Amino acid sequence: MNKIKKHLFSAEDNVPVYSDIENTKILGYLSEGEWLGVIEETELSYFIASSKHVGYVAISDCIELLDSNFRVDHQGESPVYYGM
Prior knowledge:
The N and C termini lie far apart (32 Å). It is built from no helices and nine strands. By secondary structure, it is an all-beta fold. Strand 8 and strand 9 form a beta hairpin. The strands form three sheets. Strands 6-5-4-1-7 form a five-stranded antiparallel beta sheet, with no helix packed on it. The chain has a two-stranded antiparallel sheet with strand order 2-3. It has a two-stranded antiparallel ribbon with strand order 8-9.
């Protein structure tokens, strides 16, 4: 079982999630504000788990929650998280 080491959010819409660290195959896309659980970290990418995908994303496409306060906007099955 993989442990979540930190919690992040996608910084923009259409953030690609790749199946491998070389970024050769896109599994899907994340929406702005979508939660990401970081399992592993390299110099340029995170290995993440989201509500829909498990794969690699670029570190530059993520933001860290610096404040423990945030709100959730439930939009169907995919809630969007916002820092306050």
